[in-house]
Hints:
This protein has helices at residues 12-24, 35-44, 61-70, 86-94, 107-126, 161-171, 180-187, 197-211, and strands at 3-8, 27-32, 49-53, 77-81, 99-102, 135-138, 141-144, 149-152, 155-157, 221-224, 228-231. The chain is of the alpha/beta class. It has two domains: 3-126, 3-Layer(aba) Sandwich (Rossmann fold), CATH 3.40.50.2300; 135-231, Orthogonal Bundle (Arc Repressor Mutant, subunit A), CATH 1.10.10.10. Strands 2-1-3-4-5 form a five-stranded parallel beta sheet, with helices on both faces. A four-stranded antiparallel beta sheet has the order 6-7-8-9, with no helix packed on it. It is globular.
Amino acid sequence: MDGRVLIIEDDDAIASIIGTYLKKEGFQIERVDNGSDAVTVASTGEWDLILLDVMLPGLDGFEICMKLRTMRIDVPIIFLTARGEEVDQVLGLGLGADDYITKPFSGLALTARVKAHLRRYRELKGNQSNNETDVLRFSDLEIDLGACVVRREEQEITLSAKEYELLRFLLSRPGQVFTKEQIFSNVWSDGYYTTDDNTVMVHIRRLREKIEIDPSKPRYIITVRGLGYRFAKDA
Length: 235
C-alpha cells in the first residue's frame, strides 16, 4: 500500500522503528521532531495519515490535533502515547483524533492500524467519484453521500473522516439500533482491535456536537439505554 505518512515524534528510536516498518509497506515517510514545526508541516503538505506523539517539545499533541481539525484537515490522525490513562485517551479522541496506540507497541500492529485507517479513508473519499449520489434530508440536516458533505440549515459542517464514516454507518439502516460492539467492529475494527467503548462514545458525542442543535437533547443520534445507538428514522 502506498501513501504519505507524517510522523510527529521526538524520540529518534521510536521514529526510526515506525519509519522502517512503514517504508517496507511502500509508504513515503516524513518526520517532524517537535510540536513547534508540526502544525506548519502538517497543514502545508499533502498527507494521507498523521501519526502524532502526545508529549512533544513546543506544542503538545493535543494542541496540534485541535489546531489541525480547526483548519479542516480531515486525514486520519493516530495518537502515539505512553500515557495510557483513560482520561488522556478520551481527551485525544475528543479533540478529533481517529485512534490512539499506547507505547510500547508492536510494529506490525501499528502498520495494520495505519493500513486500516488509510483504506477506510480512501474508500470514503472514493464515494465522491462513484455512483453514490443520494442526498439524504432530515428536517434541518442534509447529507450528500456522493460529495461527503453534511449541511445543517445550508451551512456546511466539517467532519473528520472517522466522524463521517460513523455517520454513514448509522445511516446505513435508519431506525435500527446498533450496539457499541457493532459500531466499533464496522467503523474501526481490522482484527487487531478489541472493542473500545470510549472510542465509540467520544465519537458519538463529537458527532452530536456538530450535527445536533442541542446535543444534550439529540434529535438524530438517539441513545437506546442498555442497547446502543440509532439514527432517528423520522427525524
